[in-house]
Structure formats: C-alpha cells, structure tokens
Write a structure and sequence with these properties.
This protein is of the alpha/beta class and about 450 residues long. The protein contains 14 helices and 22 strands. It folds into two domains: about 270 residues, Ribonuclease Z/Hydroxyacylglutathione hydrolase-like (Metallo-beta-lactamase, Chain A), CATH 3.60.15; about 180 residues, Rossmann fold (3-Layer(aba) Sandwich).
C-alpha cells in the first residue's frame, strides 16, 4: 500500500490524499486550497493525477477544505462513488451547490472590475450545475458500517466530533489498521457528540491545526462572548462574525440562545446572512443521531437554539444588502469562515473601517487569507481589490474552534499507539511543535509530508 499526500501538507487547506493498493486508487478528501488567489486557482484547477483513474472517493466531513473540489473532480471525468456519512451527504448537497454559486458570483463581481480595466476575464472553477453533477455521485453510509474495497482492504467511519456528520476514516488491510483523523473535534463541545476512540492502529495520519497550543475551557466561551456583545452594543456598533456555515454558526447560536435564556444579555438583532446556514440548520434538525446529551435535552423540552424570536436567517441578496443600513447594534454572522468568498466580504467592506464595530474571529485562519490578515491585526487589508483601513476592534476567540488542541491530539495518539505517524492539516509551526511533543512522549517515527510525497506503508 502506498499513500501520496497532495494537500493539507504544512497548511490547513486543500486536504487530499491518494491511497494505492493493488490496482485500486482511493482518494481520501478532495478539498479546496485557500490562500493567495493566483496560487489557489492553479492548485485547485489542476489535479496532480487523472481524475478518471480514481476508483473511489471517501470524504471525512463537509467542510469545503475537505470536500470543495469534488465538483471539479467530476467535471474533469471522475464518475464513480463518493462515500461519506449520511449527515455529511445531506450537508454536501447544500454546501457544494452553495460553493458553485459563490464561485459564479465572485467571478461575476471580479469580472466587472476586470472589464473596466480592460483586463482578461476569468471563468469560475466550477458552477452550480457542476456541483449538482458531483452530488449525484455521493453515497451516504452510517457510522461503523464496514465497506469492502477489495478482498483485502476495507474501511469504516468513526465519530470525529468535529461538525455534524464528521468522521475519522479507519482502513483495515489484512489485520493492520490505518487511521485518518480527518478534522478531530474536542470533547464537551455543544451540539454534537464527542470524538470516539479507535484503539490501536499501525499508521496514524492526524491533523495538527492546533498542535502548538491549548484551548481555553469551552465553558468560558459564553462569558467572553457576553463581554464582547455588551462592549459592541455599548459602542452602538455591529458585531461581525465570519463563520463557517456548518458547525461554528450553530455553536455560536447555541451560546447566544443560552445567554438570552438566562437573561445574561439583552435581546439584540441577530442576522445569519447565508442561505447555506439556514438550510444547514435544517439538516441539523434531521440528524439527531449526531447530537450530544445537552442538545437532546433542549429538543426534548421543545427548545430550539436555532430558532428564537430575534434570530433572522437572511437568504435573499437584497435583504443581505439591507444589513449594511442597520440603525441599531446587531450581530451579523456570515460565511465564508476564512473571509475568502461570499457575503462576509461585503459586510467586512461596510463595517471594518468604523471603530464602533467589532470583528470577531472564532477559528483558525489559514495563511494568506483575508481572515488571517484580520486576525493578525494588520492595519490595512484588501477586499475586492480595494484597500480598507481596519478601525473596527478585532477579537480572537479560539474557544469556539471545533479542532482538537495539542492535549486532545496527544491523548488521541496515546490511545491509538501508532507505529508511524504522519502529520497533516497544520502549518509548519504547529507541526514542528507537535513533533517535539510526540518525541518527548516516545513517538519518534514521525513524518511531515511535503506536497506530492509518497510513502510505502505496507
């Protein structure tokens, strides 16, 4: 068996790994690379293999950095099954269409500017129709169901606790086990279940997004969120939150719901500006098998943290534009999470230069993204090719990250006792720090692959 690492190598985006066994080629993940526009366009457009040669695609979860290049894969000739969990299948039905729409609209907006400058126009990476073709290939299966790839090789999905439907992918080859963590979640996060433990494996391919740091206690997040909401309201400004439509948005709504329910904050207009977020929330309702105990208790008591009086889901473009004329302090939650596309760009454009407003970063921002530049407190940023001065307050709340921290990751390693470890989905500083931690704990057989690196593992 051979594994080649084509994405998420010393970066947190573009997850893509190729397993070759006998005559089979299995693609694990097919994510979009996010970062510098020209570099990302080149990587996303051109696969380092022939899509027609792939026998099966397996997706750990629905986040776009793990699944977002599926429409392009199918567009370039892949025509077999794409396997995910049932909940991930339902989310991908929404997210890939939304991604196609965003690609179309962002290129349309960009081309208007290019046309004025008499510069060459661009084509979207893929369209909504391309996304629909990819969705036709997605097959959902339940957690822990074993799928035979051939006589020797099989796999199953194990709860990852990251977002709804997220899974670790466990391969078994003649009694030997290879585990891809996908994005590994944290324990005691709201809404969904904790990650499951797998037991001993020979090979571990693990994410390292926060391999160099520990998160604050998740229970402290409500207190910090309360303080930021009250401070922004006191300035009579808006709280703008770039947020992934699946996972982070629902966790934020869960905490805001509880803060209001306990009379810890006054009611304030909350606008979730993303058709995807609205539809994804409906998917959450349809998959209670993924809920944790606290979430189940709320639903059993007829309380819904995704539907309450002052919460508004914005779907129409004109209603989204109206948010830029709000006269009262409000909370605007919008995608995309790393501020690279979508409606969040327009809200940042209209709010980032006003010191009354606050930008709240609630998760990891990849290098060379707009979100990263804001999180790094750069004084000036470019949005739609225009430069804006950052006068709004910027706060970082990694408590809301759905990624395991270095302690969670180390616990997972110790419980799987791998013979060899590959580190992916992290930047160099996180990977290097976690490598040192692993060696201090007796794990010396550690690899940090480069893009295109191949390894014979059995």
């Amino acid at each position: 068996m051979k594994i080649t690492f084509f994405g998420a190598t010393r970066t947190v985006t573009g997850s893509m790994f190729l397993i070759e066994h006998n005559s089979k080629k299995i693609l694990v993940e097919c994510g979009l690379h996010q970062g510098r526009r020209s570099e990302s366009e080149e990587i996303n457009k051109n696969f380092p293999f022939d899509p027609k040669s792939i026998d099966m695609v397996i997706i750990s979860h629905a986040h776009i950095d793990h699944s977002g290049n599926l429409p392009n894969l199918v567009k370039q000739g892949y025509n077999r099954d794409i396997i995910s969990t049932d909940a991930t299948r339902d989310l991908l039905d929404l997210m890939l269409r939304d991604s196609g729409h965003i690609h179309e609209k962002d290129i349309e907006y960009l081309n208007k500017k290019l046309k004025k400058k008499n510069e060459p126009l661009k084509e979207p990476l893929y369209t909504v129709r391309d996304a629909e073709h990819a969705i036709e290939h997605i097959k959902g299966i339940s957690y822990y169901k074993t799928i035979n790839i051939d006589n020797d090789l099989k796999f199953s999905f194990i709860e990852a606790g990251h977002i709804l439907g997220s899974a670790q992918i466990l391969f078994e080859l003649k009694g030997k086990k290879i585990l891809f963590t996908g994005d590994l979640g944290r324990e005691h996060m709201p809404v969904i279940r904790n990650p499951d433990r797998v037991g001993d494996v020979e090979i571990l391919i693990t994410e390292t997004t926060y391999g160099d740091r520990s998160h604050k206690n998740i229970q402290m997040s409500q207190d910090e969120l309360k303080r930021i909401i009250e401070e922004t309201r006191g300035k009579k400004g808006n709280l703008v939150v770039p947020s992934f439509s699946v996972g982070r948005t629902q966790e934020l709504l869960f905490d805001i719901f509880n803060l209001q329910k306990d009379d810890r904050i006054p009611k304030i207009g909350i606008y979730v500006d993303s058709p995807l977020s609205s539809n994804a929330t409906d998917v959450f309702k349809n998959h209670p098998e993924c809920y944790d105990k606290e979430m189940m208790e709320l639903f059993n008591n007829n309380q819904n943290p995704f539907e309450f009086e002052n919460l508004h889901y914005i779907t129409e473009v004109e209603d989204s534009k109206m948010l830029n004329m709000l006269k009262k302090p409000s909370i605007i939650i919008s995608s995309s999470g790393m501020c690279e596309a979508g409606r969040i760009l327009h809200h940042l454009k209209h709010n980032i230069t006003d010191k009354k407003n606050t930008i709240l970063i609630t998760g990891f921002m990849a290098e060379n993204t707009l979100g990263r530049r804001i999180a790094d407190h750069e004084k000036r940023v470019r949005i739609f090719s225009e430069e804006f001065q950052v006068r709004a307050d910027v706060y970082i709340m990694n408590e809301y990250s759905a990624h395991a921290d270095k302690n969670d990751l180390m616990r997972h390693v110790k419980e799987t006792t791998p013979e060899k470890i590959f580190l992916v989905h992290g930047e160099s500083s996180q990977m290097d720090a976690f490598t040192n931690s692993l060696k201090m704990n007796g794990y010396n057989n550690v690899e940090i692959p480069s893009r295109g690196s191949s390894y014979e593992i059995f």
